[in-house]
Design a protein that fits this description.
By secondary structure, this protein is of the alpha/beta class. It contains 14 helices and 11 strands. A 7-stranded mixed beta sheet has the order 1-7-6-5-4-2-3, with helices on both faces. Helix 1 runs parallel beside helix 3 and helix 9 packs parallel to helix 10. It is globular. Bound molecules: pyridoxal-5'-phosphate (PLP).
Length: 472
């Protein structure tokens, strides 16, 4: 059995490693220094017959893991779309682990439930969304959208006189789900988990920025009789673009469709006065997904489901049992809105990060990242054979190399080679993707520390790489 003394020594050791990692992080190379085989060999020791000393385990863990960590808390990290775990959120998370609360049930974790209640109210205020909306804490945007779409499925069937919770899916009216051809991959997975097959999905064409075309949506809605769900995006994964909510949402109302907004990172534009126009009209939707662990820098895992119709939300998600008692003044019971009956107390780190940033801190960070994206755009503008494929409206850049009249294969090879060269310098962590049938260098400026000086470093590295690649 672990003694209090051993716990204290191990916890102090863990804190030492944690603080050292965060202090050294900005100086470290962005890539893991160990190969996959080396990481595997470090972890793959024989399972001990007898338990080891805690302090030694923690030392061994740090030694095994650190060479294999991706330094995504680094200010020059631009890959995927990942936040950088705000240090105060990390500190709150250490306490969260020590307290060991099961936050799914109010009665097993009243402090966690109230921290969620208060921080979710702050998020609704920041995002200027209807204050009466219900809220669920999930692992990330994937599960947050799953929750929102569960509520949507239940509600659109109810509106058609069908009680899904009683009758089940078999025999239910056919629901059609309208989504853009460039919806995020996780939305397609969510729909599959919910029992929708490709035959239930109506894909709507997009414009050159990946925005859903309202005319085509209208045409397709007109041809459909049954219950309907429409899924729109605030922040396209490649271009950062926003669907034209002011045109789409009133249209959906005419057809009595539930409108869900996937705003995993882009919804945060609503918190910034100079960017809020990008999200105009989306407040009239029925549900919204937004991540904490992306732009808000809350440590993993933290995503939020927001639903304008608490009754539909609860009907879809409720977990009740005789032993799950509540007092009248408990307020919201998380298990009635989320997926699990046992889970981490995600509200503590959110509560801490929101206070560490403050309203102005959120605005400053998001506008700084937007300004950084515009700065990089200016650095690349006019450079022969470098093309930025998107309008830089937010924090994402989709960059392709080579002229459009050059062979696609050659252009793709050059883009991949530029990415490789940037990575070899080990100053910036970047990755590629495919968009519009071609390879792109996708830059996501979203890490809390990134500022204009970092963009100068990135631009210089990118231009050096292009100088070499373009000559070959
Ligand atoms: C638009 C969009 N939706 C959903 C997701 C999935 O988010 P998560 O990884 O938090 O589940 C992402 C991730 O990048 C995204 O960009």
């Amino acid at each position: 059995m672990t003694s209090q003394k051993e716990f204290k020594a191990a916890a102090q050791k863990a804190l030492e490693h944690a603080v050292a990692w965060r202090e050294d992080g900005p100086k470290l190379p962005a890539f893991p220094s160990a190969t996959t085989a080396q990481i595997r060999a470090s972890f793959d020791v024989d399972l001990p017959e007898q338990g080891l000393n805690g302090e030694i385990i923690i030392d061994n863990l740090a030694r095994a893991a650190e060479p294999g960590l991706v330094n995504n808390t680094h200010q020059n990290f631009y890959a995927w779309v990942q936040g950088a775990s705000h240090p105060i959120g990390v500190a709150a998370d250490i306490l969260t682990s020590a307290w060991g609360q099961n936050a799914a049930i109010h009665q097993t974790a009243p402090a966690a439930a109230i921290a969620e209640e208060v921080s979710s109210k702050w998020i609704l205020e920041l995002l200027n969304l209807p204050p009466e909306s219900s809220f669920a804490f999930a692992t990330g945007a994937t599960m947050a959208s799953f929750i929102c779409l569960s509520a949507a499925r239940s509600e659109v069937l109810h509106r058609h006189g069908y009680d899904l919770e009683h009758e089940g899916l078999t025999g239910a009216p056919n629901i059609q789900v309208f989504l853009s051809k460039e919806a995020h991959a996780t939305i397609i997975s969510d729909l599959r988990y919910l029992g929708f097959g490709h035959k239930n999905l109506v894909f709507i064409a997009v414009d050159h920025q990946g925005r859903m075309l309202p005319d085509e949506l209208e045409q397709k809605l007109t041809c459909s009789n049954g219950p309907k769900i429409v899924i729109v995006q605030a922040g396209h994964i490649n271009s950062g673009a926003f669907d034209p909510f002011n045109e789409i949402i009133p249209l959906c109302k005419v057809y009595n469709a539930w409108i869900h907004v996937d705003g995993a990172f882009g919804l945060w534009a609503r918190a910034v006065p100079s960017l809020a126009h990008l999200c105009e009209g989306l407040e009239h939707a029925d549900s919204w997904t937004v991540d904490g662990h992306k732009w808000l820098q809350v440590p993993y895992d933290s995503g939020y489901a927001i639903v304008k119709h608490p009754d539909a939300h609860r009907r879809a998600m409720d977990i009740s049992a005789s032993y799950l008692v509540s007092d009248p003044d408990d307020g919201r019971n998380p298990a009635q809105f989320g997926l699990e009956l046992s889970r981490r107390a995600r509200g503590f780190s959110l509560w801490a990060v929101l206070q560490a940033l403050g309203r102005q801190g959120v605005v400053e960070m998001i506008s700084r990242h937007h300004d950084c994206a515009k700065l990089l755009e200016r650095h690349l503008a006019g450079i022969p054979r470098i093309r930025i494929l998107n309008q830089v409206v937010l924090n994402q850049l989709a960059i392709a190399f080579g002229d459009e009249n050059e062979a696609l294969e050659k252009r793709n090879q050059m883009t991949v080679a530029v990415i490789q060269k940037i990575r070899e310098e080990n100053k910036n962590f970047v990755l590629g993707a495919k968009w519009k049938n071609q390879s792109i260098l996708r830059i996501s400026i979203i890490s809390q520390l990134t500022d204009k000086d970092d963009i100068e470093v990135l631009a210089a590295s990118l231009l050096r790489a292009w100088d070499t690649v373009s000559l070959v």
